[in-house]
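Design request, tokens follow.
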């Protein structure tokens, strides 16, 4: 009874990660096909299955394997898009794997190659490549290292939905065949392409041999664990969504409170501005009134000055006529000066 394909996280880890010859042979075939390199010996470093994932945020059913040259590869099956940002998560896995090497007392030239390889059942990148390898590069595709062998940290993605499942078997390459098997192995010999591959393809025969070792009870447990795992993932995602909504609500509340305070401060400022305007207007009115009163007083003062000038002019004219009369009557200038309490020069000045 095959009730699951190899996109099932538990089936993937169980088929390729169990500590037995059949699983190890299947794993070497998988790595040879998707890394496009010869794999002679490989050791699974975390063959144990997750026992209790009920309280884990995102239980990882990855496979951490090590080659005979100490190259480390972390394999993971990503069945679906999740709320947890994939484009942030897997570079983090890559950095964590590379940084897990014990370099105390060693030269960094001894760093071993690390590869994080993810099988996606969703389209991620906008190109037609089923497999993409990401390395450190500068803008403009300038590589960080001169030779590829010096590039010790890689991220390799396999996007399974990009495989044309309707393509004739004879036109498929090894990667496409293996992905087709991943997706349809639960059908067994009922699928015509699976049947042909099992009968004629050595790599698929090795995978099939491994899958055949799983008992009916084993498949039942895989299905049940898979169901529980994804129920837990969905529960945790809902919890994360709820927490995110609560966080956003609190941020909105804080923003609203700050907005209210700003509005209150703005209202107070506007009131102060209005009060200042009114006081300024009052001051201007008072200043205008004072200015008008001052102008009126200046005008009155000028009027009085004009009247005084006229009075002085009249008095001077009367003095002039009086002096002329006195001179006509034979009064001397010295006598006139003494009479008017002025000097003779002033009397003569008045007569000009």
């Amino acid at each position: 009874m095959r009730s699951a394909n190899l996109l099932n996280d538990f089936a993937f880890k169980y088929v390729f990660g169990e500590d037995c010859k059949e699983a190890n042979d299947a794993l070497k075939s998988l790595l040879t096909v998707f890394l496009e390199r010869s794999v002679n010996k490989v050791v699974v470093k975390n063959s144990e299955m997750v026992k209790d994932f009920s309280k884990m945020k995102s239980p990882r059913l990855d496979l951490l394997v090590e080659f005979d040259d100490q190259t480390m590869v972390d394999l993971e099956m990503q069945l679906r898009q999740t709320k947890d940002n994939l484009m942030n998560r897997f570079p983090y896995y890559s950095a964590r794997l590379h940084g897990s090497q014990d370099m105390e007392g060693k030269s960094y030239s001894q760093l071993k190659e690390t590869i994080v390889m993810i099988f996606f059942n969703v389209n991620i990148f906008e190109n037609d490549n089923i497999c993409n390898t990401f390395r450190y590069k500068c803008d403009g595709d300038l590589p960080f290292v001169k030779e590829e062998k010096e590039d010790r940290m890689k991220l390799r993605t396999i996007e399974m939905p990009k495989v044309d499942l309707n393509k004739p078997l004879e036109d498929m390459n090894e990667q496409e065949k293996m992905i087709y098997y991943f997706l349809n192995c639960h059908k067994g010999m009922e699928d015509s392409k699976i049947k042909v591959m099992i009968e004629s393809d050595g790599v698929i025969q090795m995978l099939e041999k491994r899958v055949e070792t799983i008992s009916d009870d084993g498949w039942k447990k895989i299905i049940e664990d898979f169901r529980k795992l994804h129920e837990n993932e969905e529960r945790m995602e809902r919890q994360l969504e709820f927490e995110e909504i609560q966080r956003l609500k609190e941020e909105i509340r804080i923003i609203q409170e700050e907005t209210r305070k700003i509005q209150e401060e703005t209202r107070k400022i506007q009131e102060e501005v209005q009060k200042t305007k009114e006081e300024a207007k009052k001051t201007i009115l008072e200043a205008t009134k004072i200015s008008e009163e001052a102008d009126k007083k200046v005008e009155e003062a000028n009027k009085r000055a004009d009247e005084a000038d006229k009075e002085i002019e009249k008095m001077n004219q009367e003095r002039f006529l009086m002096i002329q009369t006195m001179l006509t009557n034979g009064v001397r200038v010295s006598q006139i000066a003494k009479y008017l309490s002025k000097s003779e020069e002033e009397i003569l000045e008045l007569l000009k």
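Comment from the thread starter after seeing the answer: thanks! The longest strand covers residues 72-78.
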